[in-house]
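Researcher: I'd like a structural prediction for the single chain below. Treat it as a standalone chain; there are no partners to consider.
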Amino acid sequence: MRNGIMIFGVFFLLSAGLHAQQDSVWTLEECINYALEKNIQVRKGGIAIERYLNYSDQAKAQRFPSVNASVTQNYNWAKGTGGSGLSGAGGSNISANSSVTIFNASRLNNQIKQAALDIEAGQYSLETMKESISLSILNAYLQVLYSAEQVKNSEKQIESTEGQLDLASERLAIRLISQADYAQVKSQLANEKLNLANARSQLAIAKVNLEQLMELPVTDGFNIADPKLDEVINQNRTPDVAEVYQIALGIKPQVKNAEVNKKIAALDENIAKAGYYPSLSASAGIGTSYSGRMTDPYFDQINNGISPSLGLSLSIPIYQRKQVKTSVAVAQLGYQDAELSELNTRNELRKSIEQACLDVTSAQVDYEASLENFIATTESSALSDEKFRQGIINSVDYLVSKTNLILAESNLLQSKYNLIFSYKVLDFYSGIPLAL
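Model: Treating it as a single chain, here is the predicted structure.
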């Protein structure tokens, strides 16, 4: 009973801790860090690096002599003298052997270097994966902010339209407007409530998407911080593709990974060429034996039978049915492939930076145009509201102005977050940490 209470208590505390974490307000940095900690592929990448570390230790150990020992116990039968039947006797053989490679055309040294490069390549591959996940988290985080702001705008639109509907109701009561005019304003309010419902649904979807990218269980209490974004809006940047590209070449892990893979491929060729050369190894051993057919005591036979040995072994390749030649040719093709992969990685990086710079320029122009349109539409909508209150314009003209304002506000909001995301992507290629 006591154990059951303790287990329940531990489970309750863990659950409470999880819910407390989920109900807290998450910053972008916290979301990224949590995602990198929990992501399965990232964790598997860490395991891969541990595997490479073990391979590296194994490669280094090949420099040292190998030592093996063996003990054999046997029992033999043979016919006795004069055909008296089978007689048996036991025997033992004890031996220890050691061997070490003296020369193998640097095959072993190249394998050790290659194992170290495998570790480095694994680390760069892991960093590339982390950067990709971080960008995905940034995009999902901004989508939540965008959806939340869309909900606020929809709520403000409804509040404004409800005031106009009350005014239209009063005018309908004293017959200053027709039933059709009142119905149109009422229909507009219904549409805006539908827009609010859709905006809330999109916000919920955006939150779920972010939580799933973070590998965080979905709950209703998940909320993110609302950073001050006004300072990062339209910085009037003029990005230089060549400058950003040169910075990225020096810091981006995918480029370094491609460079390391090319070095690994070059070592593959050197290792394969080692097959053309002789290999020299040294060996040493010691052995002894005991036979039950001999009359000497066991330990006397063991001591007297000790026989040490030393030897050198030179293996000279003469004809290997094109095995070495084929291995070298395949390794050379692998190096050419690694060169092309490195070139492709650099080209893809350059294209991504070119697109990022273009996105920044376009997003800045789009934001300025959207802001100008929103300001003008807001002024026009304010005049239309006043005219509608005074009965100067009908409901149709009012609703047209209202719809234009909603569209202008939506376009401005979308261009705002497109601009923020484009800035952050450009910062990403320039080596600036992702933060809001």
